[in-house]
């Protein structure tokens, strides 16, 4: 893949690129794809050349997670579909072995993930293999609905996949974890900036971002205090959160909460279509699902297939719960579903013939996508969808989560001091323990979610800052377009242009949005 990236960059460099007659310069769509290719491939090569891929082990979005997620995307409606599933299950042991060989290279080169990441993945693999609950494991459960004619083949393939994952788990525990002893959680400035470039498409000014996030922290905290008083007169923020968790509206049962979240998205489609977006055809199809056991704690979205035979899907991790307070879920599903991830990524797929397959698949920039989804939450607040005090406090706590991500992600990896006027452990240097306490005091996440969040920041440096920095770019781009067009600015027109232009890194996104 690295060789292909270098060859592609060399081919791009051979293009004239500036002459009006040149096909890339003459076609804005070609120019946009070339711009994205140059930025993405250069950022990916920097990560590869530093050897970061040989220590790709964390609690989310590492190669072993992608191996399993493939199956959640596959069609399973016909016997032919299940035959393909069986074939792909038989390929799991080889894929897992290849991943292990990559990690072994990292051990040999002294490039390892920290013990915290290893331990979090061990717990996940225990859930996948059934060791955590004494069951048959996730793969066996996945094939249980397959056709009887393929029962023996499916069960055998699932057993082989489970065994391969179990062997990886044992090697991680017995060999990798001892070798990782002493590897620090923080990655340092050089690796952090390299990883942040990959996640944001920008050479992030981390000092500016850290200071700006503290400003956002104090501003949002003031709003949260007001909203907490509306939820429970006289209550502080954490007290209001605890009240909503214990006495607020809640859904009992996985099927019931899945159906309720589906209703949230369906209602958003009906109310936004024709007013602030044109939500037509396959964009109207999005499914609510429960995340498979052993997932990270955060909800997530998977986009539709290029032909829309698989719709976009949102996933809620249950973490063993059976009762689900809804006060935080409304804005979260505006983020994951409509008008957030689903509307943007399904729209990209719908206009793929005007863009390119690269732009709508491999070329995604995380901060662009997450920035849009956070912008979507704010848009729904601005449009009056979150006037209920509980729902609005839920929205503000999610904003605060993304602000805390900027502060703690940069703070932990660069070992920064907490500002003297912060009101939280002033002058101390950020540690994982302080990050956990910060989340508990100002965002109210339960312990399991906090642990998953902190592990994620430490294992995926630079990704978590893209939500708020991306939202800032989207908001600035919109206001620049509004200023440029004056009375001719139309929000629905701008929205549809904005979600039809494909992905850009943050170095380019704001200017492109301003010109729409």
TrEMBL record:
Pfam families xref list: DUF885
InterPro entries assigned: DUF885
Superkingdom of the source?
A: Bacteria
The protein, known as: DUF885 domain-containing protein
């Amino acid at each position: 893949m690295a060789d292909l990236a270098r060859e592609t960059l060399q081919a791009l460099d051979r293009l004239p690129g500036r002459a009006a007659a040149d096909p890339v310069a003459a076609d804005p769509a070609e120019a946009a794809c070339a711009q994205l290719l140059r930025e993405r491939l250069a950022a990916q090569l920097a990560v590869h050349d530093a050897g970061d891929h040989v220590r790709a082990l964390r609690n989310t979005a590492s190669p072993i997670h992608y191996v399993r997620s493939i199956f959640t995307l596959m069609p399973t409606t016909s016997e032919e579909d299940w035959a393909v599933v069986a074939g792909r299950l038989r390929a799991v042991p080889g894929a897992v072995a290849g991943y292990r060989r990559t990690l072994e290279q990292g051990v040999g080169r002294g490039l390892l993930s920290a013990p915290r990441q290893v331990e979090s993945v061990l717990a996940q693999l225990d859930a996948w293999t059934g060791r955590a609950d004494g069951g048959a494991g996730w793969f066996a459960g996945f094939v249980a609905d397959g056709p009887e004619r393929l029962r023996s083949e499916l069960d055998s393939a699932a057993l082989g996949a489970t065994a391969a994952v179990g062997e990886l788990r044992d090697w991680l525990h017995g060999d990798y974890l001892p070798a990782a002893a002493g590897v620090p959680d923080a990655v340092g400035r050089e690796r952090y900036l390299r990883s942040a470039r990959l996640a944001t498409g920008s050479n992030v000014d981390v000092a500016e971002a850290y200071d700006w996030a503290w400003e956002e922290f104090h501003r949002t905290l003031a709003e949260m205090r007001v909203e907490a008083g509306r939820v429970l007169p006289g209550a502080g923020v954490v007290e209001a959160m605890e009240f909503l968790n214990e006495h607020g509206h809640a859904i009992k049962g996985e099927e019931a909460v899945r159906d309720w979240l589906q209703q949230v998205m369906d209602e958003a489609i009906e109310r936004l279509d024709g007013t602030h977006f044109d939500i037509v055809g396959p964009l109207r199809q999005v499914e609510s699902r429960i995340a498979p056991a052993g997932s990270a704690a955060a909800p997530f979205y998977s986009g539709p297939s290029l032909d829309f035979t698989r719709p976009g899907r949102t996933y809620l991790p249950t973490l063993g719960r059976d009762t689900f307070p809804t006060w935080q879920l409304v804005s979260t599903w505006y983020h994951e579903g409509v008008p957030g991830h689903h509307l943007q990524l399904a729209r990209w797929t719908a206009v793929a013939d005007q863009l390119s397959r690269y732009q709508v698949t491999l070329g995604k920039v995380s901060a662009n996508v997450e920035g849009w989804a956070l912008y979507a939450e704010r848009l729904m607040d601005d449009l009056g969808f979150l006037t209920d005090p509980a729902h609005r406090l839920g929205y503000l706590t999610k904003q605060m989560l993304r602000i805390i991500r900027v502060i703690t992600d940069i703070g932990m990896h660069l070992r920064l001091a907490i500002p003297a006027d912060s009101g939280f452990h002033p002058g101390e240097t950020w540690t994982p323990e302080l990050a956990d306490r910060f989340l508990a005091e100002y965002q109210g996440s339960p312990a399991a979610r906090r642990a998953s969040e902190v592990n994620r920041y430490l294992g995926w440096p630079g990704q978590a800052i893209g939500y708020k920095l991306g939202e800032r770019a989207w908001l600035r781009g919109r206001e620049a377009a509004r200023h440029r067009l004056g009375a001719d600015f139309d929000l629905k027109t701008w929205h549809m242009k904005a979600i039809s232009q494909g992905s850009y890194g943050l170095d380019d996104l704001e200017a492109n949005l301003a010109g729409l």
